[in-house]
Design a protein that fits this description.
Layout (H helix, E strand, L loop, with lengths): L1 E5 L4 H13 L4 E6 L19 E5 L5 H11 L3 E4 L6 H6 L2 H21 L3 E7 L26 H20 L3 E6 L2 E2 L8 H10 L4 E4 L5 E3 L1 E2 H14 L4 E5 L4 E3 H12 L6 E4 L14 H7 L7 H14 L1 H8 L3 H10 L5
Parallel strand pairs: 1-2, 1-4, 2-3, 4-5, 5-6, 6-11, 7-10, 8-13
Antiparallel strand pairs: 9-12
Helix pairs in contact: 1-7, 2-4, 4-5, 6-8
The structure holds nicotinamide-adenine-dinucleotide (NAD) and thymidine-5'-diphosphate.
Nicotinamide-adenine-dinucleotide binds next to helix 1, helix 4 and strand 5.
């Protein structure tokens, strides 16, 4: 079995590659990644010499490059992680989000159609459902919740999802989609909430909490997400959407305080800054479908997962120091300099 994994030099894609090489030692994994600011080849160092693994530097929007790769590798399955993934960047400039997340997805699916595939899996997000009110803890996202996006990022992911489902209906392509809640764990790029707060706290730098910090996310340890994708890929029904996550809702401020506590840092580092434009209030997944059909449930408790994650950042300083000492400095300066106090 040959599996193409796009975006495998990023956070979830790399964890998925490690997971698959362990779970299916007889599979060949071909990682396709453009190595944008978010892709890091050093993340894949431990598997580079594994004969079951190969890496190809390629933009998923490059149609002729993608078609040549399919001719050469003859993949049985494709798992598409490649995306621009940061909401704040999409608010600054949506264009590359539309290009990679929608056009790139269409190129990958056209290749699957042309060369044949057993399964195309699209890694999507719960953000396509928009948000839930903070005062209705009884409401959750199901697969039937209408698409109702807030940010250019989530809109581009929703566009891709609709295209994937259209290729199933129109061409009978064997597709599946997972819509996952917020992941955390090793190799998470420092621009996102949890790694940003860990890294800033370690440097005794301000911890910039948007608005009042009361927005809620439903956090999932990345390995649990990888297990879910593996199950959907092999046992999920074609043409179906599966929500992944559930029952681990946390307010941002509580996460930041927990990180301070675990690292022995003072809460006085917390700095309330101007809110994100269009900031989604609450995400919460109902995982009934994937639990009933595929027997999946999140396994890692947040207390364990966050400790493991903090330990990983403490043990792997070289990985993130290389990132924050590069272009990230300009990004940070630009994104945080002008945020007025809330
Ligand atoms: P990431 O930003 O860490 O990694 C994205 C990877 O895609 C990088 O390696 C980057 O180089 C690569 N890439 C970007 N544009 C490309 C292109 N045109 N061609 C080839 N490669 C390209 O993202 P992540 O957090 O690992 O997210 C992976 C997927 O999961 C995304 O599709 C995202 O929408 C989805 N998702 C993420 C989360 C989360 O909490 N991180 C939650 C739900 C869904
Ligand atoms: P993020 O990690 O960007 O994920 P997403 O927007 O996809 O959920 O942000 C998670 C939450 O943390 C979100 O409510 C925004 C908030 N946040 C901050 O308060 N400060 C920050 O510096 C960042 C990056 C995020």
């Amino acid at each position: 079995m040959t599996v193409i994994v796009t975006g495998g030099a990023g956070f979830i894609g790399s964890n998925f590659i490690f997971y698959m090489l362990n779970a299916h030692p007889d599979y060949r994994i071909v990682c396709v990644d453009k190595l944008t600011y978010a892709g890091n080849l050093s993340t894949l160092r431990s598997v580079m010499n594994n004969p079951a693994f190969s890496f190809v530097k390629l933009d998923i929007c490059d149609r002729s490059g993608v078609y040549s790769l399919f001719e050469k590798e003859k993949p049985d399955m494709v798992v598409n992680f490649a995306a621009e993934s940061h909401v704040d960047r999409s608010i600054e400039d949506a264009s590359v989000f539309l290009q990679t997340n929608i056009i790139g997805t269409s190129v990958m699916m056209d290749a699957c159609r042309k060369y044949g595939i057993r399964r195309y899996h699209q890694v999507s997000t719960d953000e396509v459902y928009g948000d839930l009110p903070l005062d209705r803890p009884d409401l959750f996202f199901t697969e039937e919740t209408p698409i109702h996006t807030s940010s250019p990022y989530s809109s581009s992911k929703a566009g891709a999802d609709l295209l994937v489902l259209a290729y199933h209906r129109t061409f009978g392509m064997p597709v599946s989609i997972s819509r996952c809640s917020n992941n955390y764990g090793p190799y998470h790029f420092p621009e996102k909430l949890i790694p940003l707060m860990i890294i800033n706290a370690l440097g005794n730098k301000p911890l910039p909490v948007y608005g009042k910090g009361i927005n809620v996310r439903d956090w999932l340890y990345v390995e649990d997400h990888c297990k879910a994708i593996d199950l959907i890929l092999h046992n999920g029904r074609a043409g179906e959407v599966y929500n992944v996550g559930g029952h681990n809702e946390m307010r941002n401020i509580d996460i930041v305080k927990l990180i301070c506590k675990e690292l022995g840092k003072p809460e006085s580092l917390i700095t309330y800054v101007a809110d994100r434009k269009g900031h989604d209030l609450r995400y919460a997944i109902d995982p009934t479908k994937i639990r009933n059909e595929l027997g999946w449930m999140p396994e890692t408790k947040f207390e364990d997962g966050i400790r493991r994650t903090i330990k990983w950042y403490l043990d792997n300083r070289a990985w993130w120091e290389e990132i924050i000492n590069g272009d990230y400095q300009q990004y940070y300066e630009k994104m945080y300099k002008d945020r007025q106090k809330a």
